[in-house]
Design a protein that fits this description.
InterPro entries: AAA+_ATPase, ABC_transporter-like_ATP-bd, ABC_transporter-like_CS, P-loop_NTPase. Keywords: ATP-binding, Nucleotide-binding, Transport. This protein has 2 domains: 234 residues, P-loop containing nucleotide triphosphate hydrolases (Rossmann fold, 3-Layer(aba) Sandwich), CATH 3.40.50; 56 residues. It is of the alpha/beta class. It has an 8-stranded mixed sheet, with helices on both faces. Strands 2-1-4-5 form a 4-stranded antiparallel sheet, covered by helices on one side. It contains 10 helices and 16 strands. A hairpin with a 3-residue loop joins β1 and β2.
């Protein structure tokens, strides 16, 4: 089956009196396959929200090609709009309307059966609060209502921009479970979030954008594997002596106040064997595998040259790590 979302070479610039011409998205590519829960990550000002707005026809792109559910966007977006649910940025609601009335009006306006209102409220955990006025809702409850509005159409594609904003830990877990249940039912989900640990738990694929360009894309496990230095944390009674023995065994070692970090270790038993043969017994041996947060920080500035972000393609068995062209303009086109 063809991709649910395809973006190729997307460009968008903004003009402002203060800053002049600003590049928000600079040749960005994104592919989301059917049934994926796809994380879309980037620092503030990286071009995430601009990309989503361009994809949904809310702003006009300056260049590139986009399609949603096989329909070119924005020219034929209306043909598939009934199969797409989306929240971008923070939706605004009438405070004096109840949650139920808000969704009912949206359902009537969109030609959706009113019976879907109760179902959508149930899905996001607001069924018992649907008769309360929206102005009394907490930020997290308003966010749930926004997600419910995106679910009204029983969409094939769900686009969520910061759906966990304002949610407490229990709410975040419920949103995670909802996202996974939708994916299990065949819904494709594109989700943008700053909660990287949650993205790592929810998503099977990820795309990272920095300064308007894609710097990583692929399965989450493959992207993380591309940054695995095969390092282990070691705690032992005589760290200085242990470091000498491990270096003599051909392993790079960094010594810290209460532990060692040993690199290039394919088999951790090599560490325990090298030390055990000399009467040093390991108290702790822990794999230091990269997580999505550390990879994100390296790709978007912390650990990478700020003007030349690395691009990681995790789409195949061998990860291509390339230096991108220098001179990428600073992005200030949007706040996400």
């Amino acid at each position: 089956m063809s991709a649910v979302i395809e973006i190729e070479g997307l460009r968008k610039t903004f003009n402002s009196v203060r800053h002049g011409r600003q590049v928000a998205v600079d040749g960005f590519d994104l592919t989301v396959g059917p049934g994926e829960v796809h994380g879309f990550l980037g620092p503030n000002g990286s071009g995430k929200t601009t990309t989503l707005r361009a994809l949904l026809g809310l702003v006009r792109a300056d260049g590139g090609r986009m399609s949603v559910l096989g329909a070119p966007s924005p020219t034929r977006l209306a043909q598939v709009a009934g199969r797409v649910g989306a929240i971008v940025e923070s939706p605004q609601f009438f405070g004096n309307f109840t949650g139920y009335r808000t969704l009912r009006l949206l359902a009537l306006a969109g030609g959706v059966p009113v019976s879907r209102v109760d179902e959508a409220l149930e899905q996001v955990g607001l069924h018992d609060r649907g008769d309360e006025r929206v102005k009394g809702y907490s930020l997290g409850m308003k966010q749930r209502l926004a997600v419910a509005s995106a679910l009204l159409k029983n969409p094939e594609l769900l686009i969520l921009d910061e759906p966990a904003n304002g949610l407490d830990p229990a709410g975040i877990r419920e949103m995670r479970d909802l996202t996974r249940s939708l994916a299990d039912a065949g819904v494709t989900v594109l989700i943008s979030s700053h909660i990287l640990a949650e993205i790592q738990l929810i998503c099977d694929h990820v795309t990272i954008i920095s300064r308007g360009r894609r710097v990583a894309s692929g399965r989450v496990d493959e992207v993380l594997a591309g940054f695995d230095r095969h390092e282990f944390l070691v705690r032992v009674a005589e760290p200085e002596r242990a470091a000498e023995l491990l270096r003599a065994g051909g392993l790079p070692v960094d010594v810290y106040s209460d532990h060692l970090v040993v690199g290039q270790v394919d088999d951790p038993t090599r560490i325990s064997r090298l030390l055990g043969e000399q009467g040093l017994w390991v108290r702790e041996l822990t794999s230091l595998r990269p997580d999505l947060e550390s990879v994100f920080l390296e790709l978007t500035g912390d650990g990478a040259h700020p003007e030349v972000p690395r691009q990681v393609d995790g789409s195949g068995p061998h990860h291509r790590v390339m230096e991108m062209d220098a001179g990428v303009g600073e992005v200030r086109g949007d706040n996400a």
